[in-house]
Each structure stands twice: as structure tokens, then as C-alpha cells.
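User: Here's a structure from my thesis project, written as C-alpha cells. My advisor, Dr. K., wants to see whether a designed sequence matches the one we expressed. Can you design one independently, without my sequence as a hint?
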């Protein structure tokens, strides 16, 4: 049985996209992360888990960091950082781009990836 820590709706401004105005003006990106790992529920010690505050810092750093053309790349970089946290076995990352440059009316554009340290 695998346990999970979930962060939903972490929002920050990034400059990702293929169009010059996306790189110039920026836009909000919203990220959901599900970390799968064995959770020690009897120790009550932060050292026996993964700090969701550290994960949130990592996610924000990727969103606000070096501009990427694709949200797929952003999701991959977030997943890589999460898997560097020693106890995380698997991660699911969804990057939402609610202001993607589409001419149609839409609610959201998102990419979801799943990565595991045991591949």
C-alpha cells in the first residue's frame, strides 16, 4: 500500500510559452502534485517524511524560473525535483495553464505526467 502527500492549486507567475508575449508578460501557472511514498505515522518527526513546504518551494522555483517553451518540460522539471526527495517513490504532476493563448473559449489547458524512481 502506498501513501500520498498532495499539494493542489499552487499558483505562481511564470514566463513559459512559445509566443513572445508569453515570455514578456508572463501568466499564472497552477500546479498539482501528488507524492507517493511510505508515510511513517507513528514517529511524528518531520525527518521521517517529506516536507510539503520544501516541495512547494521547489514547484514555485520551477514555475518562476527559466522560461520553457512547453508546460510538458515544466512538469518534467518539477517531477525531477520531487524525486530527488529521498523518500518519494512516485510523483504525479499536473501543470495548468488557464490563460493559454487559444482563440476558443476554454476553462483550462493542462499536462499531467507520472514519474517513478524505479523505472
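Assistant: Designed independently from the structure alone:
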Amino acid at each position: 500500500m502506498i501513501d500520498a502527500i498532495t499539494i493542489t492549486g499552487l499558483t505562481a507567475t511564470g514566463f513559459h510559452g512559445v509566443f513572445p508575449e508569453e515570455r514578456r508578460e508572463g501568466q499564472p501557472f497552477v500546479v498539482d502534485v501528488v507524492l507517493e511514498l511510505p508515510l511513517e505515522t507513528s514517529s511524528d518527526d518531520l525527518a521521517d517524511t517529506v516536507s510539503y513546504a520544501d516541495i512547494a518551494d521547489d514547484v514555485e522555483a520551477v514555475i518562476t524560473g527559466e522560461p520553457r517553451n512547453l508546460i510538458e518540460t515544466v512538469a518534467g522539471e518539477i517531477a525531477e525535483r520531487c524525486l530527488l526527495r529521498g523518500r518519494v517513490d512516485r510523483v504525479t504532476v499536473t501543470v495548468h495553464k488557464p490563460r493559454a493563448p487559444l482563440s476558443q473559449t476554454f476553462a483550462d489547458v493542462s499536462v499531467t505526467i507520472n514519474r517513478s524512481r524505479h523505472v
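When you compare it with your expressed construct, this may help: Helices lie at 20-25, 52-64, 71-83.
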